[in-house]
Amino acid sequence: MKLFFNHFKFALVLCICIFHYNYSQDSNYWIHQYGTRADLLSGLVVGSVKDLSSTFYNPGAIPLSPEQSLVLTTDAFEFSTISAKNAAGKGEDLQSRQSGSAPGIFAVRLTSSASIKNHWAVSYLTRNNFRLNVDSRNIDSRPPSAGNLEQDYFSGEASFSQSITEAWGGITYGRNVWDRVALGITQYLAYRYQKSRTQMIGQLYDHTGDGSSLIFFEQFKFEHVRTLWKIGLSLAYQPLSFGFTVTTPGVGIYGTGETLYNLSQSGVDSTILGTGQSSLASNYQLNVSATYHSPLSIAAGARYRLRKSSIYFTLEWFDRVDQFTVLAPKDFIAQSSGNAISTSYDHELKSVTNYGLGFQHEFSEKLSLYLSGTLDKSARVPDSDTPFTISDWNIYHITLGSSLTFWRIDLTAGLTFSFGSRDYREPLLSTRANGTILEDGFDVTEVNYRRLKFIIGFTILSNPNG
After folding, report:
1. Residues 68-90, mean pLDDT to the nearest whole number
2. Across residues 286-314, what is the average pLDDT?
3. What is the dihedral of CA 48, 54, 57, 63, to 10 degrees?
4. Is residue 465 situated within a structural domain?
5. Is residue 437 part of a domain?
6. How sure is the predictor about 92, in pLDDT bands with cuts at 50, 70 and 90?
7. CATH number, domain containing residue 168
């Protein structure tokens, strides 16, 4: 039964790989967009922002539309699926379906006069907010083998849960430099809370009357506060306008967390606890120092207007994040074997460049149609052991929508379709094997990601014609 622990844990990790990505945004930076028209243009508005989403996309645009809006808010509903062929065995696919609200933004302008040079706004946006629970269980009887007329029985369960909340609150300052040129900066205070728990339970009763069991659970959680700045330059010429931004890496202010680890076995051999009828390694630590890093990014965007149509383009480069330790609990001694056990939770990201193209056509002064598409690359480092990013495939986003202005309200509505895939040649979840509790399983030929996002938003205008 030597393969009990290794195969069981491997199966769970790959099971998490299928489901976890549906909610994690750490390896794809353009998953969420903010603002009414910015949402319809997939965020391709660095070169031309007409509402208060400029606090996030390009703070330099704030002084160039001083009477455009006072309050901005958006809401979106997402429905997403991930499917994996042969993930539970040959001919047995796994599929996850999830739905919920997408993160949004709220912003208020503090100054609205076109005659002043200094402009201020405050904003609050949700960068991450989700809850995830995944579990898989199996009760299995193995058919008799040659020369043996009795059966073996297996019961196992693997579960994974994770929650992440990250919110940014910021204050934006903008100043006119020349007639159609302005600079701006937003200082954000970012709060992140993350909790994750992995649990496995497996039991085997064989035909000789012997039994074995394994119980494993590992949990960590932390909270972290950091500050960062987004600096923007906006040039509003006709028919071509430009925008440039720099987002600084986060600077840590405060971080703390806790870790929990427990592994117990009976009648199982493992490299961690050694050979024996029963073994135990358990540890719980509070007040563990926590660190979290975010990357430097540089973006450039443009808008070209031709009669009643406009074309938008944005490109953004994200620097790599070198490997760092989020949580580093102290080593502890296993109660049964006396072996020292070390656990560490590290993170890293590779450099990526995202880009996209958008189109807008004005049927009238009050009604416009939008179409946009972007490539959102995964920043996960290949073969990385980080538990904070799992997906390693790129995502394509396509958005279609419209905006309608009436009285003092600018209303937008649209639909985003996102998709991505990756081929895997690794085993997943299976429990039938020759004398072992878990076998190598079957190849997963393809993993597919699909998402539908329904968008609705409004801006309250101080000047309906602004």
Report:
1. 64
2. 96
3. 70
4. no
5. yes
6. low
7. 2.40.160.60
